[in-house]
Amino acid sequence: MRSLLLRLYGAFTTAVQPLVRRKLRRRAEAEPGYGVAVEERFGHYDDATTGEGQCWVHAVSLGETRAAAILIAELRRQYPGIPILLTHGTATGREEGAKLLEPGDTQVWQPWDMPGAVQRFLDRFQPRIGVLMETEVWPEMAAACAERRIPLVLANARLNEKSLAAAERLGWLARPAYSALAAVWAQTEADAHRLVSLGAKVAGIYGNLKFDASPDARQLAAAATLRERLPKPMVVLASSRDGEERMLLDVLRRFGATAPVPPEQGAIRSIAKRVHDVQWMIVPRHPQRFDEVAALIEAEGFAVARRSAAGEPSDAEIWLGDSLGEMALYYGLADVALLGGSFEPLGGQNLIEPAACGCPVVMGPSTFNFAEAAQLSLAAGASLRVENMEQAVTAALKLVENPERRAAMAEAALAFSSSNRGAAERTAAAVLAIAQAADPVATEAAPLEDARAEPTLE
Questions:
Q1: Residues in domain 3-deoxy-D-manno-octulosonic-acid transferase N-terminal (predicted)?
Q2: One fold for both 4-205 and 217-420?
């Protein structure tokens, strides 16, 4: 029997459906991907969209999709031919997820969390198990899966203090949703404690799936070749968020990056000369901001060269990495990376990826999204923490001028990355065990099987 509060929540999400549609139309003007298959978001599918008894993996955005890619690859290794149902909430997530599909897989939008859309989604696909990535727990979906005895699990789970406080304010919705999950596998012990406080059944602390990702070898090889032609060492502001690009440009301008470089005076070089001796690069986190950041760079008085237009290095003051899926190339080119999302109070971006590429990192004060990874990285000597962008630029310049320390940090980064692997194997095994134990009669789902592979999970 559903609670009155959950029924009221369902009535609310149904009532605001027109607003959701309007928001999607507006988003589609800037990002056409949001205009694709819109009706899927409300549980309406064409006849060609089929698939029953699949392993459903939900990865809302780009970062979660990349983590899901690691898990899906391991699921396929442990259970060849496993059919995957992949859902997303953002256009970049769906675009990245399309690269993961194999024959027999299905990809659709995550249904809006209202009773009608959720019921139509579950009726159409009848997943054998649902795997939510990292943070995506929706009350209506959790309740509907529990009613149908479809095990719904949360993998690579994380929950920071800010998100916990928000969930506690809406405890009447959050606690039943987390309690309805069949299992949760947390990234860290701190995440586990916070999840348990919301009623989640934490079945293990497996670490972060992203440690199991291997950088694109072709991109790293291309970066190594390109580095030989670079006239200057490179510092990259990686996965930058709104506001951080302006911070960097302000610091570079104050340090004299746009002014004529004064002559050297003996052994002492001016800060402007040191800044000019470095090639600076900005890689925005979100592709819809590429044009905006290019315009900002020019407005601040810098010449800009875009990866999408130039391809090869130029003598522009600022390079703009305006491409998707090339972070390994950018980290391979960089002597030092400034961690985006950590200089604004946004919790930081993924610092595991630069570590896997052997790239030293300078991070700002805000890393709550990767708190334990940040602490481990600092302890390993793979990164530095500073309080603001000016300190970050100064620290990067010092590293550029100290090849011995930079090499030691690069080696520490690789060791830090390799020592934290193993989450994918543990998580995939746990997912398959729960799927195998699920009762197909009770769930009215087909066995999780595929004609291409034996044995089935029955």
A1: 38-213
A2: yes
361-363: strand order across its sheet: 304-306, 318-320, 279-284, 234-240, 336-339, 361-363, 383-385
- In one-letter notation, the amino acid at residue 52 is E
Q: How far apart are CA 57 and CA 107, in angstroms?
A: 10
Q: What is the mean pLDDT of residues 326-341?
A: 96
**What secondary structure does DSSP assign to 329-373, as a single string?**
HHHHH-SEEEETTTTTTS-----HHHHHTT--EEE-S--GGGHHH
Query: Cα 276–223–359 angle (5° rounding)?
Result: 70
pLDDT value of position 456: 32
Cα–Cα distance for residue pair 171/192, rounded to 1 Å: 17
Domain edges within the chain? 4-205, 217-420
Q: What is the dihedral of CA 226, 229, 234, 236, to 10 degrees?
A: -30
Q: Is 231 helix (H, G, I), strand (E, B) or coil?
A: coil
Q: Read off the tokens for 218.
A: 């072709």
Instruction: State the catalytic residues.
Output: 64
- Per-residue pLDDT of 105-160, as tens digits, reads 999 999 999 999 999 999 999 999 999 999 999 999 999 999 999 999 999 999 99
Report the 10 Å Cβ neighbour count for 380: 17
Mapped onto helix, strand or coil, the DSSP state of residue 102 is coil
pTM over 0.70: yes
- Give the Å distances, CA to CA, from 22 to 18, 45, 242, 259, 441: 6, 20, 24, 47, 40
Of all residues in the chain, the percent with pLDDT exceeding 70 is 91
Residue 126 is predicted with a pLDDT of 95
Q: What is the Cα–Cα distance from 143 to 137, expressed in whole angstroms?
A: 10
- Whether residue 455 is preceded by a cis peptide bond, meaning omega within 30 degrees of 0, is yes
Confidence at 372, pLDDT banded by 50, 70, 90: confident
Q: At what angle do helices 115-125 and 4-15 cross, to 10 degrees?
A: 90
Max Cα-Cα span within the chain:
82
- Burial category of 47 from C-beta neighbours within 10 Å (exposed 0-12, middle 13-18, buried 19 and up): exposed
Q: How far is 171 from 149, CA to CA, in rounded Å?
A: 23
Domain 217-420 has CATH 3.30.2310.20: no
Indicate left, alpha or beta for 444 from its phi (over 0: left) and psi (-120 to 50: alpha).
left
Q: How far apart (Å, rounded) are the C-alpha atoms in residues 129 and 437?
A: 10
The answer to whether domain 4-205 has CATH 3.40.50.11720 is yes
